[in-house]
Amino acid sequence: MTMSEPTSEETVPVRLHVNGVTHDIVVPPRRLLSDALRHDIGLTGTHVGCEHGVCGACTILVDGAPSRACLMFAVGAQDVELTTVEGLTHEDGSLSPVQQAFKDCHGLQCGFCTPGFLTTIAAGIRDNPDPDREDARDMIAGNLCRCTGYQNIVASVLRAAEIQREEEAS
Amino acid sequence: MTTKMMGERVPRVEDDRLVTGKGRYSDDLVPGALETAVLRSPHAHARIVSIDVEAVLDVHGVHAVYTYEDLPGPMADPLPLLIPHPALTHGRTQYALAKDEVNYVGEAIAFVVADNRYIAEDALEHIEVEYDFLPPVVGIPAARAAQELVHEDVPGNRAATMHQSFGDADAAIRDATHTLSLDFTIERSASMPLEGRGTVARWDEDLKRLSVWTSTQTSTGVRAAVASKLGLDLGQVDVITPDVGGGFGVKIMHPWPEELLVPLAARSLKRPVKFTEDRREHFISAAHERGQEQHVDVGFDDDGRITGLSVHFWHDNGAYTPYGLIVPIITSTQLLGPYKPPNYSVTFESLYTNTVIVTPYRGAGRPQGVYAMERTMDAIAAHLGKDRVQVREANFIQPEDFPYAQGDLLFQDGRPLIYDSGNYPELMDKAKALIDWSDFEAYREEARAAGRKVGIGIACYVEGTGVGPYEGGHVHIETSGKVKVSTGLTSQGQGHETAFAQIVADELGVPFADIEVVTGDTRRSPYSVGTFASRAAVMSGSAIALAARNARQKALRIAAQALEADVDDLEISEGIVRVKGVPQSEIALGTLAVLSNPLRYAFDEASRAATQFIVGDPLQPPVGEDDEPGLEGKDYYSPMRCTFASGIHAVIVETDPETAEITILRYAVVHDCGTLINPKIVEGQIHGGVAQGVGGALYEKMAYDEHGQLQNASFMDFLMPYVTEVPDGIEVDHLETPSPLNPLGLKGAGEAGVIPTSAVFASAIEDAEGFPITAMPISPSELHALRLTHEHDRARDQDTIERSNS
After folding, report:
1. Which terminus of chain B has fewer CB atoms gathered within 10 Å of its CB, N or C?
2. Residue B451, helix vs strand vs coil
């Protein structure tokens, strides 16, 4: 059965600040932040794995703090600074410490959970620039990965901190 | 000389896009596509009396709703039974949208297309379905008892009963010095990739062509299914597999109903249409695996050498059998592992239940088979008071036995079960050394003195990998010297772009950075099978190597003409062909590509050098007989049979005396996947497999209630391991016994990490606790309950002894 003349539901204007860029979008009030980032702004790097806040694939930074984008509404994310995986890359296009570390240490396989790990760890090594192995495991303990067995993600955390220290020293 | 790439820990070329958010998964594609939602049965077993979709008309933003009545032509037939088998006497498959009856919670009933997913989900609420309830059959005991039937025309709920044997197991057991009769159960789990299923399709009305992007392990399989069901020529359908967020088996099932409904709607509405599954849907409507009950009778001598082995098991295949009997066939044949019992008999019954379908999940029936065999080995050792390693060694196939035929059993590919290569005693020596097996008793005493309970476990497996029928490779050297490689199977995280480029770099003598690999695109590779059964490296790796050799041969032939040299005097490195020992005499592969293609038009500098007025012999046709333009190589690899990888896992656990919490202290893996292409990638596969195995052994189960409702259909309730649940530092050692069956000596590695995990944890927990562990997974509360039972039994036995003494 096919219908015609679809009309959309009531919408509201929303202003989002993402990776230093302001986006004005018009979305229904119930639009999840994860969907707004992915489909309204086109930043598809943020992935949705469970839509109930458990897997961490959609983790972004909200004013620098790791947060589940699938547990926020877009309208609730105005007046804050959002950072997605796309915003981690250096301005010259080169990889940030945590991105480079994942590549160095084979910290990813399918890459689907990876953006959530990257944002989480970026905040983690900012707050604790010299983590030990136990700190590294704690840092990623809220994110699910079905591919890597985490060994190489733990190694990536330590390597990311190392690269970050080298970058800051130079 | 070009640096050798095979065997090197080359960083993955996939990673740049994936770490910067530039990966492209199915839901990332075709912005603006209409979105969809599926009405799924809330009941495990019911007849559909009526479906009323009228109220959906009132939902703004809805474009279409489909029920069974709206399915045209072949779409209205049952979905394909992909792998028929003579023993599958009662195969059944579902419809793309339920017709008359639903057989599991989650079965698709109606399909709504709307402006977006939110509206599509709203619309589902407006569909009225009237059901006549039927009694649900849940779990193996209920299916076996068959007091109620899943399908009224399938007697006893038995989809299949299959028997294979060699020798006379019953007689051997009857005559054996020792016999044991053992029962084991293993629970359901699921692949559970972080990205669920997803499909997007676009119909081009002008060209009458359909483009489908789907998160699959087989683009050619989906293409064939879509073309067949939509009544299109194969040539009208392109299926492109973008980045795939994990598969582990669940994405080899094809077609999923949504993979047909999305293209159907896209063609009908003339708008791009997308389906992206949510997590709850994945739990209740994507496939599960593993659930079996097993009975083992074994006879053996004083050394623990098995003289006869008889196995009967019951396999829960869920509500339908689209993937045939692959899983239980693998269990029944791979159960034998590295051992050579002279007499073996196996019978399985594949049973219908009113639960979601069961199709291969990483390991595909092997974890269950290895569990039965390795639990049996441990039971033999316990019965004889022998070291568990010794009993295994007494039964090993020896290196000189290869090729070794396991009687006349037929494997999953319908071919005789013949192991090509391996060295199990050496694997065991490595495993013992890696886990310090011989020092464990001293460690146990130390731990005991400190009030701690520890146990060690060991488990062996053999894995048939690289199953046929074939894969292809295409290698194209461009005039720039860059090399474009294509193979038809897909990648869902295994790093194929990197591993295959390593192979081509070596075979062709070109810089790794100049090679680009494309997988899973039917426009580039229309003939292919798919990525499953640890087959990608073996099958496509071999095909690509052969294709590269063909390209190399052609390059050398043209170079010999250009350099006026003999082919045998030429070598290629860094993309340059040189006459050995003549430094000035060289020509680039890109130039050879120019020379290989006589052109009519000079549209750029490179092509100017290739016009028919410049290249070639004017007395010969521009393209010679038996030749073709361009510098390409193509080939297919089709093996006689599987190659057999092998390995041994060992684990040391600690069980808390109070809480029964199980802690992993050490985990060691020794494995043999033949020639290693990229050890870094292989180890990553092992780490991931072990983590999935830890989940399957200690946490994951599908908690269906008696009504067939899945009680834990979320990541809150279905416990997959976080980093906190996996051992820190999985110890890995490699053995390389190259396979004689393929040009590079490869064997598969993708499933090695997960296969023996339930067996090895059961072994270690049993060793720590001192009573048999026969059901997996095992939670702390289950272990605690077992302790109470065994304390109670011990007290009762003690009481009986005291009374009989008094």
Report:
1. C
2. coil
The answer, yes or no, to whether residue B253 has pLDDT greater than 90, is no
Q: How far apart are the CA of B562 and the nearest CA of chain A, in angstroms?
A: 42
Chain center to CA of B237: 26
Return the residue of A nearest to B490 by Cα.
A110
Q: DSSP 3-state assignment of B616?
A: coil
Structure tokens at B196: 């669920």
A residues 79..98 contacting B (CB < 8 A): 84-86, 88-89, 95
ipTM beyond cut 0.85: yes
Measure B602 CA to nearest chain A CA, in Å.
37
Q: What letter does residue B58 receive in the DSSP assignment?
A: G
Q: Please count the structural domains in chain B.
A: 3
Q: What is the pLDDT of residue B413?
A: 86
Same domain, B611 and B501: yes
Contact partners, residue B729, CB within 8 Å, separation at least 6: A151
Closest residue in A to B31 (Cα–Cα): A39
In this structure, the strands spanning B344-351 and B158-166 are: antiparallel
Opening angle at CA A67, ends A66 and A69, nearest 5: 135
Q: Which H/E stretch holds residue B471?
A: strand B471-477
| Residue pairs spanning A and B at CB distance below 8 A | 206
Look at residue B331 and tell me if it is in a domain.
yes
Q: What is the pTM of this model?
A: 0.95
Residue indicated by tokens 């209630």: B705
Query: Burial code of B601-637, b = ≥16 C-beta within 10 A, e = fewer?
Result: eeeeebeeebeeeebbeeeeebeeeeeeeebbbbbbb
Chain A residues in contact with B53 by the CB 8 A cut-off are: 1
Alpha-carbon separation of residue A122 from A64, A66, A99 (angstroms): 9, 9, 9
Q: Are B687 and A110 in contact (CB < 8 Å)? A: no
Asked if residues A46 and A85 have their Cβ atoms less than 8 Å apart, the reply is yes
Nearest CA in chain A to B684: A148
Q: Which domain holds residue B674?
A: 292-467+640-789
Looking at the fold, whether B653 and B758 belong to one and the same domain comes out as yes
C-alpha B576/C-alpha B585 separation (Å) is 10
- Using a CB–CB cutoff of 8 Å, tell me whether B178 touches chain A: no
The Cα–Cα gap between B339 and B305 comes to: 10
CB atoms under 10 Å from CB of B518, counted, come to 20
The residue-averaged pLDDT of B38-43 equals 98
A52 touching B, CB under 8 A? yes
- Put simply, the answer to whether A106 touches B11 (Cβ < 8 Å) is yes
Indicate if B451 and B478 belong to the same structural domain: no
Q: What is the pLDDT of residues B281-316, one digit of tens each?
A: 999 999 999 999 999 999 999 999 999 999 999 999
**What does the pLDDT look like over B55-97, one tens digit per residue?**
997 899 999 999 999 999 999 999 999 999 999 999 999 999 9
CATH for B221: 3.90.1170.50
Beta carbons of B61 and A9 less than 8 Å apart: yes
Residues from chain A contacting residue B115 (CB–CB below 8 Å): 6, 8
Show the beta-strand stretches assigned E in chain A: 12-18, 21-27, 59-62, 65-68, 81-83
Domain-embedded: residue B163: no
HSE-CB at B380 with a 13 A cutoff on CA atoms is 32
Chain-chain contact of B194 with A110 (C-beta, under 8 angstroms):
yes
Residue B339: φ, ψ to 5°: -105, 160
Asked if B561 and B613 sit in the same domain, the reply is yes
Query: Using CA atoms, how far apart are residues B645 and B637, in angstroms rounded to an integer?
Result: 19
Tokens of A34: 């994860």
Residue B714 has pLDDT above 60, yes or no: yes
Q: Which of B60, B246, B730 is the closest to A112 by Cβ?
A: B246
Q: How far is B221 from chain A (nearest CA, A)?
A: 21
Helix axes A97-104, A114-127, angle to 10 degrees: 120
**Nearest-CA distance from A123 to chain B in Å?**
16
Most distant CA pair in chain B, distance: 113
